[in-house]
Design brief:
Number of strands: 6
Radius of gyration: 18 Å
Distance between the termini: 29 Å
Number of helices: 6
Organism: Parnassius mnemosyne (clouded apollo)
Helix content: 25-40%
Protein name: DDE Tnp4 domain-containing protein
GO molecular function, one term: metal ion binding
Cofactor: a divalent metal cation
Strand order of the largest sheet: 1-2
Order of helices and strands: HHEEEEHHHEEH
Subcellular location: Nucleus
Structural class: mainly alpha
Oligomer: single chain
Strand content: 5-15%
């Protein structure tokens, strides 16, 4: 699912709340599988999406713990969540490294820009199925199984200036906190 057209000044957390995806998620219309009991754990847990600090914590959207209330389990949870988010970041990095036009402002009418960006996403997904040609292993971040270190892919070799995300403030659902706590002890 791709959403295009939000103002670049809005935080990721603010952008997602104005998408079809968020509306479907909030209304339980995404057809997410039912919660399951994970191996060696007695409690059912829902399937979740991973987000960063800018996202709202919900039962189906996990975000890292604040660094102020760290325990060993919470540190490990944040590490694992960060590793999962790396997959998404790889996708965006590869997309923009292959389609250089996405690295600068596209000076066209908003509706044309939307169509171009969506076409780039479709093309990227289509070409990604041809891993041997479009995504050689050296281009993608991967984990060295011998030492557990992340080996950066060549897509990230170009220096990019990232925009700081604004933290979302608001009420965090108790249910979401409990799910995150349960995931942190696995």
């Amino acid at each position: 699912m791709v959403d295009v057209g939000a103002n670049g000044r809005i935080s990721d957390g603010g952008v997602i709340k104005n998408t079809t995806f968020w509306n479907l998620l909030a209304n339980n219309q995404l057809n997410i599988p039912e919660p399951i009991t994970l191996p060696a754990f007695s409690k059912e847990l829902p399937f979740v999406f991973v987000g960063d600090e800018a996202f709202q914590l919900t039962p189906n959207v996990m975000k890292p713990y604040r660094r102020t209330d760290f325990t060993d389990n919470k540190k490990i949870f944040n590490y694992r969540l960060s590793r999962a988010r790396r997959i998404v970041e790889n996708s965006f990095g590869i997309l923009s490294s292959r389609l250089k036009m996405l690295n600068k402002a596209i000076l066209l009418a908003r509706n044309k820009v939307r169509k171009i960006v969506l076409a780039c996403c479709y093309l990227h997904n289509y070409l990604s199925k041809r891993k041997d040609m479009y995504l050689p292993r050296a281009d993608v971040d991967y984990e060295d199984v011998n030492n557990g270190n992340i080996v950066p892919g060549s897509w990230g070799a170009e220096e990019r200036q990232l925009i700081s995300l604004q933290a979302l403030r608001g009420n965090l659902a108790n249910e979401a906190k409990i799910i995150r706590d349960d995931l942190s002890i696995l």
